[in-house]
# Entry
Amino acid sequence: EALNGRLLFAIPKKGRLHDRCLQLLAGADIQFSRSHRLDVCLVINHPIALVFLPAADIPSFVGNGNVDLGITGHDVILEAQMQDKITEVQRLGFGKCSLQVQVPERTAIKTPEDLAGKRVVTSFEVLAGQYFGKIDDQLSLVGDKRTKIQYVGGSVEAACALGLADGIVYSQFTESGDTMRAAGLHAIATLLQTEAILIKSNTPSSVEHTPIINLIASRIAGVVAAEKYVVCSYNISRAALPQAIKITPGRRAPTISPLETSDWVDVNAMVEKKDCAKVMDELVKVGAVDILIYSLTNCRV
# Structure
């Protein structure tokens, strides 16, 4: 009964996405207290219940309308074949991975076509089957000659060393390849690039949840933007302003304010955090002074 009337929001219960999701919820001011062993908890300041589930299960729960919102990886949405039953609300910019075909470094297999017809172990049975099915068709492989896809739930990287597979399909963190290198594997092809996504059900439990879904989506978009952008502030002469605006166009347009000195202005614009050092260098070249960078803790965009 405690869940009656509440929007259900699915969060990965562990793994690579869990901690980042908790940070995202805190930034969106979704307040809750979770007992250690409970997978359902009530949000204190909104009519929401958080449901902690394995990331791979979240697409099915959202797609089938059992929960209204969820955060999971794009790869597991495709693996669950739920892309037509959910709507992508927001790409979240973390949990970036590459779903790759990996083979032992010391092998004659150099391309996916070389691996066709052999044994492939993966946790992504559907996506791997679709990928190698197309290759098998192109090579006219039939019957026992087609690629053998075997599912394992974990430790996929050990399959080649244990003699279970000639290659694997594995979701590799974009930031690091340490796990695969330690296992003596390397990538020969990439099936897709993926990241964490906020999704909503195409069959929501109640239309009354639409306002709170929109509110949460807006807040999360603000947190994501605040992580991506900084505010660049500087002073520049009016004569050099057109050049400066080309460097800092802002998300829509820069904010320009006059200074007491009539031929100078103050400019504020959002720039991508990863580009801020380069932007500052370029502004110096066109005559900007008093260049400051401000971090954002939250925003609405």
User: Anything to note?
Assistant: The first helix runs from residue 18 to 27.
